[in-house]
Fold this protein.
Amino acid sequence: MRPRETAISRFWKSTFNGMAQDAAADALDEARLNAREAVTAEILLDLVAEATAEIPEGGLWADIGCATCQMARRFAERADGFVNIDLAESLLLLARHRFHPPRSSYVCADIGNLPFAPGSFRVVTTMGVLALIDDIEPALDGAMDLVAPGGMLVAEILNRRSLLYRLSLVLAVVMRRRFQPLRERDRLIRRYDLAEIERIVRRRAGWSIRLEPAFVTPFPRLSRFLAARPGWRRGLARSRTAAHLLPHAFLLVAHRDPA
């Protein structure tokens, strides 16, 4: 079954595909590359680096929902080939011509209809995509199918129960100019539960999973302070209550057993 697009995923696709490359770049810069969002991306990429360091370099890497290929720009040298996948064709053109990450190819497709054989990739990553999907189970199944034995899926899971996330929404009311985009986005993203994600993944034999918490706050300096202290992060993660109430997001790290 193909996952149904939500309002925000339709908006993303129609907005950027309707723009010239430079206009798409400017809009993406305004929406995502302010200081707060840049720090968030940096923290998530650092967590991806920690997770993928557990498996050998080489093989193929797929990034689903790549936008302007931040993942490829950081990790392409670790792979024999890097496939950047996004719904918005203009963003793929932008990434190819402006950023041109090495060893990269580009595919315009959605997570529910990926044109690859099962087991094609050593690493599959997807950041910010699952929140845009109404029916998350076939989307996760499709991403996991792409992972080769011994490979890894790393997916961002938003934590809507997070106190830090809720603080962002309060600030969206108090400080409209700086935080209003967070509130508008919150109205559109899907309300899924961490237990639901774990259930979908754990029903598959031959996989080991864990959730890595990402402590992202509305304030870039505080986010950097927390990110620089991995011992604190892991200590909080050992408390189930703290782990579910504090992190803004989790990285689902699913490692497929070798054949």
Remarks:
- The chain has one domain: 7-256.
- The radius of gyration is 17 Å.
- The domain at 7-256 is CATH 3.40.50.150 (Rossmann fold).
- Confidence is low (pLDDT under 50) at residues 1-9, 11-22, 29-33.
